[in-house]
Amino acid sequence: MKIYETKTAPNPRRVRMFLEEKGLLDKVEFIQIDLAKGENLTPEFAARNPMKKVPVLELDDGTCISETMAICRYFEELHPETTPLLGEGPLGKAKTEQWLRWIEYFFFLPTGMCFQHTSGYFKDRMNPIKEWGEECGKNVEKFFHFLNKHLEGREYICGETFSAADINAFTTVDFNKVINIRIKPEQTHLQAWYDRIKARPSSKV
């Protein structure tokens, strides 16, 4: 199997952390795609993912799977003997899915919009609207406060069990450094959680 990725991008990192936690990182060959040079815009890459985004998982038979959580779900189902990261039982799976969606829509998405619309990184292929990016940044800061409050008295986002929700939130917190949004000194619960995740080997992949 192959994963087409850009190592510095947050979505591929989410997949790498997921695979590392499951002990499956060495089962995949990683192929780097240069987003700055537009290698994701080529017809060859578009044939693998018409959305022209990374990461993309290519199976041995040529089947391609796009979208971070779809790739993670594939490995969760393919290797049920590994540590479950998408929840256990009806309630655990539902709660994890709830948090994955909250993190995706109210944290990761505005983070990406703030980056794209204020940094000018993709100005050659989009119309950046600085005011929109700045507004998204404000929403990101609100989610930092929300997470800090939620994590009071909790080891992990979904309770006492590490999950993909922690991976997705952790990588989003880290990516926010490029837009200069960081954990504030008073957000002690969020900082303690961040330090716990950072101490895990998967945070280094």
Q: What is the total number of structural domains?
A: 2
The radius of gyration over CA amounts to 17 Å
How far is the first residue's CA from the last residue's CA? 18 Å
Uncertain stretches of 5 or more adjacent residues:
none
Largest sheet: 4 strands, mixed
CATH level 3 topology of the largest domain: Glutathione S-transferase Yfyf (Class Pi), Chain A, domain 2
Strand content is 5-15%
Tally of separate helices: 7
Element order, helices and strands? EHEHEEHHHHH
Named CATH architecture of the largest domain: Up-down Bundle
- Global structural class: alpha+beta
The CATH class name of the largest domain reads: Mainly Alpha
Q: Order of strands across the biggest sheet?
A: 2-1-3-4
Shape assignment: globular
Mean pLDDT: 97
Considering DSSP H and I runs of 4 or more, what fraction of the residues is helical? 40-55%
DSSP strand count: 4
